[in-house]
Structure formats: C-alpha cells, structure tokens
Amino acid sequence: MSMPTVRSPIVREIARRSRPLLARMVQPFPPVILMLALVLLGVMPRVAQAQEGPTSNRPTNAQCLVCHEEPGLEMILPSGEVLPLTIDAQAFDDSAHGLHASEEVRCVDCHNDLIGYPHPTFPDVDFRTWQLKLSLVCGNCHEEQALARQESIHARLIAAGKFEAASCVDCHGSHQAPWVNPENRPVDRMRMVDACGQCHSAIADDYRKSIHGEEAAKGNDDVPTCSHCHPAHNIQDPRSAAFRLNSPELCGECHADAELMAKYDISTDVFDTYVADFHGTTVAIFEATEPNQYTNKAVCSDCHGAHLILPPSDEHSSVMSANLLKTCQRCHPDANERFTQSWLGHYRPDWKRYPLVAAVQWFYYLVIPVTLAFFAVFVSTDAFRTFKDRKRRNQNRSAGKENDALTGGESHD
Ligand code: HEC
Ligand code: HEC
Ligand code: HEC
Ligand code: HEC
Ligand code: HEC
Ligand code: HEC
Ligand code: HEC
Ligand code: HEC
Ligand code: HEC
Q1: Which residues does a 6 A CB cutoff place in the pocket of ligand 7?
Q2: Count of CA atoms in the C-beta half-sphere (13 A) of 280
C-alpha cells in the first residue's frame, strides 16, 4: 500500500524550509518530515509527555487537536480520495460526546488504533471501507443499539456488500453526533429526518410536505417522524407481507387514541370503521391467521399514502373527494362515481347520513338475533320432545320385555 501524501500548507512550508537538511527523505517518507518538523515546533514533547504519564496510552483530545485543529490539513488515500483532517473542536464539544456527556469520550476511544504520532499506515484503500470499519467501534459503548441493529435491513444490506446502506455514522455523524433521545433533553427531530433524507431524498421531501411532516417541523411531538414508523435500529422491509398487514396498527396507535385525536378534532372512528369494513375485516383476520401472506386488500396507506399524507380537505389529498375515484381504481379498475359512494368511508352508518344503510343494519341487528332465537327455541323444544318420546318408548319397550319375561317364565314352568 502506498504512503498517504500529506497536504497542509504549514507542513509543506516546514518541508520547504528544511529542504537542505531533509532533501532525500521528502519524497518517500512525508510523515517523518512532519514528525521532525513538529519536534521543532515543540509539539511532539507534549505528546511524548502524555505518553509517559499515568494516562500514557490515552492521549487527551487536546493532544490530538494540536495538529487536527490545523486548518487545511488533509491527506490523499490510496484510492485517490482526499480526506480532510481538520476537526471542528467546538462542534465536538457541543456534541453528545462532548462536554455534557455523562462520561468523558476521547478521540482514542473511537480511534483506538492511534496513540500518538506518527500514526500507523492508513489501514484501508478507500474512505467508505474505513468509515464502516470505524463505525463498529460505536458498539463498544452502545451495545444495545448495536445488537438491535444487526437485524435491520440496513445492516443486512451492508453485510451483503451494499456499502451505501446506513451505518451508525451515516445517521448520527462521527464528531458532531447530536443528542437524539427526547427522554433526556429536548431534541430537534427533523435532524434525523434530514439524516434519512441524505439517502432517501424523495421520501423525505414527500414527508416534509405531509401533515405529519409540517407539524413535526413546527416542533409538534404528537406526529410521527421516520423512525416512529421505521424503528431506526431495527428497520424492516416495508414491502414485506408482515409489515403491510401490521401497518394499520401503526396508524391506529395514534388515530385510535381518543385523547390525542380530540386535540385535533379528528375522528377516532377512522380506525374502528376501518376494522369493521370489508377491507379492514379481511386484513384483521389475515393478520391473525396468515401473518406471512401478502394481502391485496386496501390498508390505510393504499388510500392515504404513507409519506405524503394530507388532510382529506387538501386539494392534493388522495382521499379528497375529487381524487378518490382514482385511488379506488388502482385496485377496482371498473369503479365509477357510484362505486366510491357505495363505501361508507370512515363513517358509521347513522340515521342522518345513511338512513337506508342504517335501517338495513338495524334490520340485521334485530332480525338475525330474533330469528336465531326463534330457531333455537324451536330446535330445543323439538329435541326435548323427541328425547322425551324416545324415553317413554324405551320405558314402554322395557316394560313389555319384563312382561314377556314374566309370562315367558310362567309358560316354561
Ligand atoms: C503531530 C501531529 C499529529 C498529532 C499529534 C495527531 N495527528 Fe492524526 N494525523 C496527522 C497527520 C499529518 C495525518 C495524515 C496521515 C499521516 O501522516 O499518518 C493524520 C491522520 C489522522 C487520521 C486519518 C486516518 C489515519 O489513520 O491516518 C486520524 C483518524 C487521526 N489522524 C487521528 C488522530 C488522533 C485520534 C490523534 C490523537 C491520538 C492524532 N491524530 C494525533 C497529524 C497528527
Ligand atoms: C464517537 C467516535 C469518534 C470520536 C470520539 C472521534 N472520532 Fe474521529 N472519526 C470517527 C469516525 C467514525 C470517522 C470516520 C469518518 C467519518 O465518518 O467522519 C472519524 C474520522 C476522523 C478523521 C478523518 C477526517 C474525517 O473527519 O473524516 C480524523 C482526522 C479524526 N477522526 C480525528 C479525530 C479527533 C482528533 C478526535 C478527538 C477530538 C476524534 N476524531 C474523535 C469517530 C470518532
Ligand atoms: C467510549 C464510549 C463511546 C463510544 C465509542 C461511542 N459513544 Fe456515543 N456516547 C457515549 C457517551 C458517554 C454518551 C453520552 C450519554 C449520556 O450522557 O447520556 C454518548 C451519547 C451518544 C448519543 C446521544 C444519545 C442520547 O441520549 O441522545 C449518540 C446518538 C451516540 N452516542 C452515538 C454514537 C456513535 C454513532 C458512535 C460511533 C461513531 C458512538 N456513539 C461511540 C459513549 C460512547
Ligand atoms: C438509520 C439510521 C440510524 C442508524 C443506522 C443508527 N441509528 Fe441510532 N438512532 C437513530 C434515531 C432516529 C434515533 C432516535 C431515537 C429513535 O427515534 O429511535 C437513534 C437513537 C440512538 C441513541 C440514543 C438512545 C436510543 O436508543 O434512543 C443511541 C445511543 C444510538 N442511536 C446509537 C446508535 C449506534 C451505536 C448505531 C450503530 C450500531 C446506530 N445508532 C445506528 C437512527 C439511527
Ligand atoms: C447512508 C445512506 C442511508 C441512510 C442515511 C438511510 N438509509 Fe435507508 N436505505 C439505504 C439503502 C442504500 C437502502 C437499500 C435500498 C434498496 O435496496 O434499493 C435502504 C433501505 C431502507 C429501507 C427498506 C426499503 C427499501 O427501499 O429497501 C427503509 C424502510 C429505510 N431504508 C429507511 C430509512 C430510514 C427511516 C432512515 C433514517 C432513520 C434511513 N433509511 C437512513 C440507505 C440509507
Ligand atoms: C406514518 C408512518 C410512516 C412515516 C412517518 C414514514 N414512513 Fe416510510 N413507510 C411507511 C409505510 C406504511 C410504508 C409501506 C407502504 C408504502 O410504501 O406506501 C413505508 C415505506 C417506506 C420505504 C420503502 C418503500 C418506498 O416507499 O419506497 C422507505 C425507504 C421509507 N418508507 C422510508 C421512510 C423515511 C426516510 C421516512 C421519513 C422521511 C419515512 N419513511 C416516514 C410508513 C411511514
Ligand atoms: C405518532 C402518532 C401518529 C401516527 C403513528 C400516525 N398519525 Fe396521522 N396524525 C397524527 C396527528 C397528531 C395528526 C394531526 C396533525 C394536525 O392536524 O396538526 C395526524 C393527522 C393525520 C391526517 C389528517 C387528518 C385531518 O383531517 O387533518 C391523516 C389523513 C392521517 N394523520 C393519516 C395517518 C395514517 C394513514 C397513518 C399511518 C400510515 C398515520 N396517520 C399515523 C398522529 C399520527
Ligand atoms: C379505502 C380507502 C381508505 C382506507 C383503507 C382508509 N381510509 Fe382514511 N379516509 C378515506 C377517505 C375517503 C377519507 C375522507 C372521507 C371520510 O372521512 O370518510 C378518509 C379520512 C381519514 C381521516 C380524516 C378523518 C377526520 O376526522 O378528519 C383520517 C385521520 C384517516 N382517514 C385515517 C385512516 C386510517 C388510520 C386508516 C387505516 C386504519 C384509514 N384511514 C384507511 C379513505 C380510506
Ligand atoms: C389496495 C387495493 C384496494 C384499494 C386501493 C381499494 N380497494 Fe376496495 N377492495 C380491495 C379488494 C382486494 C377487495 C376484495 C375483493 C373481493 O374479495 O372480491 C375489495 C373490496 C371492496 C368492496 C366490496 C365489494 C367488492 O367489489 O368486492 C367495496 C365496496 C370496495 N372494496 C370499495 C372500495 C373503495 C370505495 C375504494 C376507494 C376509496 C377502495 N375499495 C380501494 C382492494 C382495494
């Protein structure tokens, strides 16, 4: 592997000035020049001092930053990529690993192959391989998240060689990881939406335009962000049969919550009526019996979308009356205006809105139980009668046998 080339104005300047002395070493061995230069600058003694003290193999962040705060410091990787080496110390201090962390986190906790300068040879060919390898270090301190993540779709994709899927560092960043757990302190949830949006930009754009996204951007914590519906460390394939069958439950978590929905004057019947109608009933039965079978019945997101969800009153909403037919036609190609009206939507049939349907429903509510009750009484009285008859007949027959036996005994005697 070829030596990385250092590109820093200061280092180049030092190299230029000391050329007479180091002329022959410049080309093949730039780090050595740098080290010598730093000794001249009085840097190395500080690093060396640290290595002698009680924390000898755990240099402080300040010791690394002596060089790494230097603007314009960069190196060229064997792949030809340029790696900037300047670290924003202030941003690191402000991050979750900075001054307010419950335990001190040092540069060398993550960069555990580096204890001072000179550094060992750059261990990889290209940036991404190196970054993914470094990402594994996070699990040393965040075991729970690392374990959960093993089964996620991103981790499985990376394991299968699809390196553009997300690792810890892609979502959280390396040196500027912000606080993310809202249980501990207020967090800006849209930062994580932006993080997902680095790779899922079209979906993130849709989401930002949706009612959920608009509200989240205003700081409303009642609405879902990406990781509510796709738990970040354990993201599963949303195209799987199980995810699809479970998805109404996902919406129901909030949309069936009477207290929450009352705040927004949104009906909670949307969930109950869904479960009661023909699409929902089938999905619910499927879920109970065939969790791995793909359902073709409509789930919430077939009509409302999953990311660009808008209020039904919005002219772009897929369930707004003018657009509704098109939404139904995706699965009912022959549907016409009458067809959409035949569906009650999320309304319960009541006397005011759907008198006929309500009447039919009441008819069934009343007539079916009454008919069944009638038949039940009829069948049971009939059964009782048959039973009594048979018993009486049996009694008669056995009485006859006894008589026979008596008379027979007498006749033989
Ligand atoms: C004397 C200046 C100096 C000090 C002190 C120093 N570095 Fe570096 N660092 C460099 C230079 C120059 C490079 C470019 C590659 C090389 O020379 O090895 C570099 C490269 C790196 C890289 C890029 C990847 C790699 O493996 O080369 C990382 C990460 C890094 N340093 C972290 C640290 C950490 C952590 C510390 C503290 C323990 C530290 N550095 C201390 C000068 C320094
Ligand atoms: C929480 C773990 C962690 C800590 C703490 C950490 N780094 Fe890094 N560092 C990484 C990761 C991961 C990378 C890989 C590239 C990336 O994603 O930025 C990296 C990359 C680097 C690089 C290459 C340039 C870059 O930004 O990609 C340098 C230089 C570096 N770190 C120096 C430091 C110094 C100096 C400190 C201490 C002030 C430090 N690191 C603290 C995880 C960490
Ligand atoms: C040496 C141990 C250590 C390593 C390695 C480490 N962290 Fe941390 N991390 C911490 C500590 C300590 C905190 C602060 C926890 C606290 O105070 O509640 C923290 C906090 C966090 C938080 C914020 C948690 C919250 O409550 O909001 C995130 C996100 C995070 N780390 C991600 C990472 C990532 C990503 C990596 C790898 C690049 C990493 N950590 C590597 C120790 C570590
Ligand atoms: C796909 C993006 C993504 C990846 C990959 C990811 N995280 Fe997270 N992480 C999040 C989000 C989003 C949160 C905020 C809490 C939530 O919504 O679940 C979070 C929360 C956290 C927290 C705060 C505590 C908690 O669980 O809420 C820590 C610590 C953390 N992640 C560490 C890691 C580590 C370590 C890895 C790698 C093993 C990792 N994360 C991988 C997105 C991600
Ligand atoms: C570094 C880029 C990156 C980041 C950041 C990222 N993802 Fe992904 N994600 C991917 C790639 C690549 C795939 C695989 C896409 C494919 O197979 O076509 C994927 C797949 C998925 C899938 C499975 C469905 C599919 O299209 O295969 C879901 C769901 C998903 N990501 C959600 C998220 C969420 C939520 C976040 C933020 C918390 C996030 N991702 C952050 C790159 C990323
Ligand atoms: C209210 C719940 C919800 C939220 C919030 C949500 N999703 Fe989804 N997501 C779903 C559902 C349901 C599906 C599957 C149905 C579909 O694709 O229409 C899905 C599918 C996906 C897919 C794969 C299939 C596709 O449509 O390409 C990806 C990738 C994805 N979501 C990423 C994200 C990202 C990134 C965010 C945040 C910007 C996000 N999701 C926010 C519920 C949600
Ligand atoms: C974390 C809770 C939560 C989840 C999960 C959730 N929503 Fe919402 N949703 C809300 C809240 C809160 C509002 C009201 C926002 C407002 O009006 O300010 C809302 C608004 C809506 C609206 C607009 C209603 C109107 O009349 O304005 C629709 C439609 C909607 N959600 C559908 C869905 C669907 C479909 C799903 C599942 C894919 C879902 N929601 C998942 C909390 C949630
Ligand atoms: C077959 C298509 C279809 C399905 C499936 C569907 N909806 Fe709807 N939804 C509609 C239509 C049409 C409207 C507007 C008219 C109405 O309220 O009936 C609507 C309205 C809504 C509203 C706004 C109600 C209000 O009070 O403002 C919410 C919230 C909602 N649906 C959530 C859901 C949830 C959650 C699911 C899944 C459990 C779901 N929808 C399943 C078509 C559907
Ligand atoms: C994701 C596909 C899908 C969407 C979207 C959808 N449906 Fe359905 N619907 C089905 C399936 C599948 C059946 C069951 C058909 C069967 O069993 O023969 C069904 C059954 C029905 C039935 C029962 C009568 C019949 O034809 O079997 C009605 C009425 C109905 N849907 C109305 C609607 C309306 C109105 C909309 C739009 C608001 C709609 N559907 C949207 C898939 C869908």
Answers
A1: 211-212, 215, 222-224, 228, 250-251, 253-255, 264, 266, 300-301, 304, 306, 309, 311-312
A2: 19
> What amino acid occupies position 365?
Y
Tokens 């010598």 — which residue? 36
Q: Does any ligand 1 atom lie closer than 6 A to the CB of residue 245? A: no
pLDDT tens, position by position, 278-302: 788 888 887 788 887 888 888 999 9
Question: Contact 31/3 with Cβ under 8 angstroms?
Answer: yes
Among 317, 289, 290, smallest CA distance to 304 is for 317
pLDDT > 70? residue 275? yes
- What number of other Cβ atoms are within 10 A of residue 38's Cβ? 21
Query: pLDDT tens digits for 159-173?
Result: 999 999 999 999 999
> Phi and psi at residue 82, in whole multiples of 5°?
-95, 125
Among 309, 208, 306, 231, residue whose Cα is nearest residue 266: 309
In sequence order, what DSSP letters do the residues of 116-175 get, joined into one string? SSSPPPP--SSHHHHHHHHHTTHHHH-HHHHHHHTTSHHHHHHHTT-TTS--HHHHH-SS
Token code pair at residue 274: 């869904």
What per-residue confidence (pLDDT) applies to 354? Answer: 59
Both tokens of 288, joined, read: 């109970």
Q: What does the pLDDT read at residue 348? A: 65
- Name the nearest CA neighbour of 167 among 157, 179, 178: 157
Confidence of residue 271 (pLDDT cuts 50, 70, 90): confident
Is 21's pLDDT higher than 80?
Answer: no
Residue 232 beta carbon below 6 angstroms from any ligand 5 atom: yes
Give pLDDT tens digits for 132-141: 999 999 999 9
Q: How far apart are CA 152 and CA 166, in angstroms?
A: 10
333 preceded by cis ω (within 30°)? no
Say yes or no: CB of residue 85 within 6 Å of ligand 1. Answer: yes
> What average pLDDT score do residues 88-101 get?
95
Please report how the helices 61-68 and 44-52 are oriented relative to each other, as an axis angle in degrees rounded to 10: 160
User: If you take atom 22 of ligand 1, which residue's CA is the nearest one?
Assistant: 85
